[in-house]
Amino acid sequence: MNDTPHAAVDVIAQISAVPTILDVVCKTTGMRFAAVARVTVDQWIACGVQDNLAFGLAPGGELKIETTICNEIRDHRKPVIIDNVAEDPHYATHHTPQIYGLQSYISVPIMLDDGSFFGTLCAIDTVPRTLNTPEIAGMFKLFASLIAFHLDAHERIEHERQGSELREQFIAVLGHDLRNPLASIDAGTRMLQRTINDDKSKSILGLMQNSISRMSGLIDNVLDFARGRMGGGIPIEQAEAVPLRPVLEQVIAELRIANPERVIETNLTDALVRCDEGRIGQLLSNLLANALTHGDSGSPIRVRSAAVKDRFELSVSNGGEPIADDVVKDLFKPFVRASDTANASGLGLGLYIASEIARSHKGRLRVTSSPEETRFTFSMPLR
Q1: What is the set of domains in the chain, with CATH numbers?
Q2: Quick one: pLDDT at residue 56?
Q3: Chain mean position to CA 173
Q4: pTM exceeds cut of 0.85
């Protein structure tokens, strides 16, 4: 177990079954002191205690490791059970009973899943007790296993928490390290566009701006993919019902500027929708980018939104070759593209991100594809 010995006191305190286990141990055996101890090479620390003997140990209290039988159990990892010290051929002269005035003793090792030794479940008394029976030995082993189970579960949860924090740090660093230099390039090209007059230079700068926009979209998709796969879904901020039309029109306008040779027809509703409008704009941007990449360049792309009963629907359709059936079934998985045409670009995350945004809004994204058109339709509750 990767912790300091004293940290084990806090971990044991979080296991609600421990006080009950110690109480049952005392009532079943008649022993007046029972404890869960963390035992290392150089420390014996009481983590959970029931003391009806006035032994004087509380959670966090320590005994000198060399004075304990648990120190020996750490080496041989076997239970030690003593009914009557005075009659026991090995322990009658042992230093531990003499130091603490013990006449009865039972201790079993607590072993973790990885084979490491945590410590012991033990009980002591100053008078003889009948302990060395299959029932009592079995009870102690069962309780030791139960404590080990909880310790292993705590360790797994802690590892997952640390892993989650590390993933969040990775996402933050990735966003910072990729976005900042890209923002500098974007600012530089925009400044040059205001100062350069010749058409050839303006054309080159326009191409650079388009590349920057695509790179920004790739970064957004990579970050959302990381959050979605590592952090349990794409986060959304649901506001009160908002008009989506302005957001959708802005997304369409930006892609029209970046693709002046393409025709994008629209028919948008003014309905109010309770949603994360930024994420819905991202969903439309991904669907439009997919249509621009894979659709027939000579056919118009049609964007339609409507309020149908109690649902909001948004669709993007384009002409071109239909998507093969074997591709459709995996189309919303990461790194899958609608086609492998020469102009295909990106990581194949756009449709996956769009479907995750739909799912986060308790909606769905579906696709139909025929020789006449390919249509992606997003549907979600209006409220």
Answers
A1: 7-156 (3.30.450.40), 234-383 (3.30.565.10)
A2: 92
A3: 17
A4: no
